[in-house]
Amino acid sequence: MRRLAxxxxxxxxxxxxxxxxxxxxxxxRYVKEGLRPVLIASGVVLLLLxxxxxxxxxxxxxxxxxxxxxxxxxxxxxxxxSHAPKVAWLLALPALSLLLYAPPALGAYTAAHSNGKxxxxxxxxxxxxxxxxxxxxxxxxxxxxRVQQDPTLAIxxxxxxxxxxxxxxxxxxxxxxxxxxxxCCAADSQTVKVRVHGTDAPPANxxxxxxxxxxxxxxxxxxxxxxxxxxxxxxPIAQPVNAYTDDLPLTPS
Length: 253
Hints:
The protein has helices at about 1-25, 35-60, 65-75, 90-100, 110, 140-150; strands at about 135, 160-170, 175-180, 190-195, 205-215, 230-235. The protein is of the alpha/beta class and about 250 residues long. Helix 1 runs parallel beside helix 4 (about 90-100).
């Protein structure tokens, strides 16, 4: 059973990786898009290992063995080691989950229990003139940089549109518009949040497009300014394909 379990597990994990990376976008819940080729290659390697394991087992079972060989195999240590505990089959459950059930994506619970991502300092030359579009689509990081670092105060009075999911603010009430950002994968994820004013909190994990203006608190263009928005309107959206980047949202296909 031990070798059979190894073969089945290799095949299941390989098939699960290929299914997730080739036929769905679910892999984006766990790793960045650039790692897709690595997942595909890993799935192929695991399937090949499973196939090689199966062929070796078949040849081994067809090879003639004398009674002396069987006695040595089963009694060299006083008892038979050819069977693994049945509990080993429980290892198949994570592999099956890749094929049959996608674990939930990171969301409000993760964001509420993590510190906000430090927003990188943007040099003055990185603040180009804002287009006249209204509302102006911005990322949460871009909005925060404009609020706290732009000496031209170009964001003042501008209607912007931000997208993210709802994270309750906790005991103090209110809520944040949030994005979770993968540097490489879910294990190194960080969050960026913008405080929302002027409307009650929708259900946690609801994806929204929110339109409004900067909520004046602190001195605009300095670190004392709060990354916050006074909402004019908001509406639910489908979770974007690039949910784990802080980019403008891509519509699911």
